[in-house]
Description:
mainly alpha
Amino acid sequence: xxxxxxxxxxxxxxxxxLRLALPDTARAEMKEAGEAVSEATTLAGWAVLYVAxxxxxxxxxxxxxxxxxxxxxxxxxxxxxxxxxxEAATRLHADDLARTLGFDHTGPLDARTGQAMTLLxxxxxxxxxxxxxxxxxx
Length: 138
């Protein structure tokens, strides 16, 4: 279940604000995970460059293939770790951001507060009063 469905957050909109509100230890882990993704991407770039060299020297194709497979494996692992950290940071600290943004909120983030946070960070704070009664009960 996505954060949008679970707690009303549009994570791409809220994430920059949430990231700034994270404690230093969480930010350090996020930075480390982001660097791992960047390193895998750089490795894939080298593989592409070796493909260009392989047109002049065929053994470079073997090197390019090895680099590409390694980059793919590392990239998947790094992206998965980064995604898990983003999810954990959101679950653990979104309620802190709600209070920082001025919402009177306690406990786990609910859909109404998440939707209001999304509207506020998107510059649509004037629409928050219109969301009273959201989400509708089924």
